[in-house]
Amino acid sequence: MKSFKFHIVLILTVLICSLTPVLSSAQHIADSSKKVNVISQKKFKRQMNKENVVILDVRTPEEYNSGNIPGSILINYKDSTFAKQVNALDKNKHYLVYCKSGNRSNKATQYMLSNGFKRVDQLENGYAKWEKSSGKSSN
Q1: Sequence-ordered list of residues with C-beta below 8 angstroms from that of 59, at least 6 positions apart, any chain
Q2: What backbone phi and psi angles, to 5 degrees, belong to 50?
Q3: Which of the four pLDDT bands, split at 50, 70 and 90, describes residue 42?
Q4: What is the C-alpha to C-alpha distance for residues 45 and 133, in angstroms, rounded to an integer?
Q5: What are the tens digits of pLDDT across the range 106-129?
Q6: At CB < 8 A and 24+ separation, what contacts does 19-28 make?
Q7: Which residues on adjacent β-strands are paired with residue 120?
Q8: φ and ψ at 124, to 5 degrees?
Q9: Considering the domain 2-134 in this protein, what is its CATH number?
Q10: Sheet holding 37-39, edge to edge
Q11: How far is the CA of 49 from the CAs of 8, 81, 94, 107, 112, in angstroms?
Q12: Residues 59-97: tens digit of each pLDDT
């Protein structure tokens, strides 16, 4: 009888845990209703060297070290401290955000817009396309 009760409790615990989504702090807080401004590579390049512009790479350190857009800073979207690191940034600067293909940068951009950042743009098609078309990277 004790074994039966134990198994019921175990099954219920597993069921409840499986129904609870596990999200990073940034994913949990991000407001998907915010419209992300996706900009072309051409526009991204024009914006890069302007005053108050910060180029933000949200890929992993390994991806960043294998090549990145010159002048970019790394804040890994998958890192548990992503939200803390982003919230320490100046919310009044203009951020150009990119990842490998656009998925993580879209989520990061949504998070930033939802948390009071005034101007955040996402690179269309990410670093993979950037590297193919421009061939310019920094290692």
Answers
A1: 68, 74, 76, 77, 99, 100, 104, 127
A2: -75, 160
A3: very high
A4: 12
A5: 999 999 999 999 999 999 999 999
A6: 24/77, 24/78, 24/80, 24/82, 24/83, 25/80, 25/82, 25/83, 25/84, 26/77, 26/82, 26/83, 26/86, 26/107, 26/108, 26/111, 27/107, 27/111
A7: 95
A8: -65, 130
A9: 3.40.250.10
A10: 37-39, 119-123, 94-98, 53-57, 73-74
A11: 61, 28, 11, 24, 21
A12: 999 999 999 999 999 999 999 999 999 999 999 999 999
Residue ranges of the domains in the chain? 2-134
Q: Are 119 and 113 in contact (CB under 8 A)?
A: no
Catalytic residue among 26, 56, 96, 99: 99
Rounded to a whole number, what is the distance in angstroms from the first to the last CA of the chain? 63
| Residue 17 designated active-site | no
